[in-house]
Write a structure and sequence with these properties.
four-stranded antiparallel β-sheet, 2 domains, 13 strands, alpha/beta
Length: about 350
Amino acid sequence: MNKVSKTLLLVLVSTAASVLAGIAIAAYLTIPSIPLISEGDRLLVFDPEIGARPNPSSHARRIYPAVRDRQTFAFDIYTDDRGARVDGPGQRSPAQVDVLVVGDSFSWGYALANPETYARQLARELGTGVSNFAMAAYGTTQSLQMLRRNGDLKPKLIVYGIIAHHFERNVMPCLPSYYPFCFDASHVTWNAAGEPYIAPPESNGVRRFQRHLAGDFTNPVTWLTHGVDVIRGRIEYAQATYSTPTDRKKEEALGYLLREMERSATAIGAKLLVVYLPTNYYSAPEALPRLIGDIRLLDLTQAFRRERDKGANLYIVGDGHPNRAAHELITREIAKYVRENGLL
């Protein structure tokens, strides 16, 4: 081997080593581990329109070790053949339901068994069929898309559980995640004419998240391809973080989505009820009533505060999600509103 060949080889080896070291640092060594153990089936599957949707006919178990002031807890998630959350395995979706629930983890029932969630309790309280298509991290955007996907169930009532953070989620291409890389999702953006529309996810954040959570990178090809994908996800995450739309744009996006949700509900002969679920007893954003317009809004802030003033705690300690008592309260308030307004 002559001197030129040796030099070229050295450059190639050095370059390859530098690239591999960069991938190791950016995609593995600087990604923190998360306090989560996932067992059973995958909780989510990638959807090219929504980004992530519940894995149909599945059973996943999530275990969260104790951190700081939060105790260890675990819960099981069963889904039917459409992906709606149900009590146990092997259940199939009915051909028609009276109530369809959409929303995020507050409505999905994070940390709770399905019989404890307000969606399941509403079925018992109202004596009617209820399908819960909420999912953790969803915003109004994904809730609208899940409503449209399952409109053939011909519900009479759509219950959308909204929280304050949906203002931000609706315009973010990356949904909340445990990892500092993009968990890609559909989101509202604007065309050249300034008109809002729903853009699809930019890449497969579900696969990225699940591979990293599994942590099996012994295969060199998987290590390399996943590492490159994580770097891509970190770039997407950084771009999303540093290009956050203004508050006015966030409000415009929510208004657009709510109108589309009302239009979609009307098209299938259903009524829409938006239920504001407070985070840490905080009031709804000031813009929400204006953006809601004549859409039905049930604001549960005062109901939550009344229970707090009686000495009750309605949130999981060290976590912030509604606990079992909160879901019981939400059930009572929604059921009362439905009966008083003849929504079923």
